[in-house]
Design a protein that fits this description.
Largest sheet: none
Structural class: mainly alpha
Helix content: over 70%
Radius of gyration: 33 Å
Order of helices and strands: HHHH
Strand content: under 5%
Number of helices: 4
Length: about 150
């Protein structure tokens, strides 16, 4: 009979020839690298689709919140004009008005972050400054209100 080739005898003996082994290792490595890259791209695509869905939902909430706070601001401005002769109520109402106006800026800035495919530069910074301003004004108004709102009558 015919004798097996030297490469085949090496396989049977448990010894791969270096070139065959390197080629096989390289092919397997490329296969898994390509599969891994394709999987990574698929996961990124799914994440971007999910991000866009969430972004549209947040955009809707931002617009609705902005409408809500515009309404609150109108009532707060009216309250300021009616209560400013009162030395206790006037500063609280002015701080609340400032807070409501800051919330409007915050939600408008949020919509410039959440609504477009690519957020506008500076919108996130504007949002953060407005959040700080509104929170500070709300805190000051709340502290000032404690002396009148928490007294038992």
């Amino acid at each position: 009979g015919k004798k097996p080739s030297a490469a085949f005898r090496g396989v049977l003996a448990g010894k791969f020839q270096p070139t065959v082994g390197r080629r096989l290792d390289g092919t397997i490595a490329r296969f898994f690298a390509n599969a891994s890259e394709a999987h990574k791209q698929f996961v990124e695509l799914q994440a971007s689709r999910q991000w866009r869905k969430e972004s549209i939902a947040l955009c809707t909430v931002d617009v609705l919140q902005n409408i809500n706070y515009i309404g609150y601001s109108i009532f707060q401005i009216r309250s300021v004009t009616l209560t400013c002769p009162d030395a206790r109520a006037c500063p609280v109402d002015i701080l609340n008005m400032l807070a409501f106006l800051s919330w409007i800026v915050l939600f408008a800035s949020n919509s410039f972050v959440d609504c477009p495919l690519k957020p506008f530069a500076g919108a996130a910074c504007s949002r953060d400054v407005a959040a700080l301003t509104s929170a500070t004004a709300n805190l000051a108004a709340s502290i000032m209100s404690l002396s009148t709102d928490c007294i038992q009558k």
